[in-house]
Here is the input.
Amino acid sequence: MRIDELICPVCGEELCVFEKSLKCANGHCFDIAKEGYVNLLSGKHKSGSMYGDNRKMAFNRRSFLSRGFFDLLGDYLAERAVSLKPSVALDVCCGEGWYSDKILRKTDVSLYGFDLSKEMVRLAAKRKLDASFFVANISRIPIRSASVDFAFHLFAPWQGEEFARILSDDGIFITVFPGSHHLFSLKKLIYEKPYLNDEKLPEDSGLVLERKEKLSGKIFLEGREEIESLFAMTPYYYHTSSEDMAKLEKLETLETEIEFVVGEFRKAKNVEG
Ligand SMILES: C[S@@+](CC[C@H](N)C(=O)[O-])C[C@H]1O[C@@H](n2cnc3c(N)ncnc32)[C@H](O)[C@@H]1O
Ligand SMILES: [Zn+2]
Here is the structure.
């Protein structure tokens, strides 16, 4: 497990491997789990209602992504990594590690990935990639300031100040949000008045938008399992009535749009780190 860019989440000191744990000079100690990941949530950030995505969501995400439905986006990211040639990459809110996997098939970048959900990180670590996965909160990323030159952040909460802090002066931060028509045919099936997604990228004084692209395609799902794994991966899963849900249960096939807005940011000149 590479740990050069990791810092202690409690005191910010560097970490060393000590037997089966990571330890800092002040005695803060974090066990390395048998799957090879480490939980770097410090006491203060451990508590609260948010624990990230649960086990079911983690398995649904894996099941859906492994079928290649988002290859358009995974391949695009991997190509960006190939052309930018970074030395240290960070998968922010990595989920079950599918995008990290894609990138490591094309590059030999030193890669870190973290998520608040232990279930997600456990699945990512089980991929046995040449990467270091850890549990952490984006509100306080236990990564050395200015040490990452390729960070990617997909469908996840925003914490611009932290993102700017960890980015090196010539680093790139890539964020992906759903485009206006992402999964629109699925939404049309469930809702009477489906809404279009807002495509506005976040604005942050620490980050400067350098490039914006839109990727679009269509996917064709066959059978209940594929349709359910997609639906359970979306935010609609938790906000849909049983009546609306029943409409989906009758479906045997589904063709729907996929659309991604990709923003590339650089660190603003005035940010320290
Ligand atoms: C929609 S999923 C996207 C996962 C992954 N980027 C992907 O596209 O497969 C959002 C992820 O953000 C994580 N998450 C939510 N709040 C977080 C936080 N405060 N810190 C770190 N991760 C968080 C969730 O656990 C979940 O894995
Ligand atoms: Zn410490």
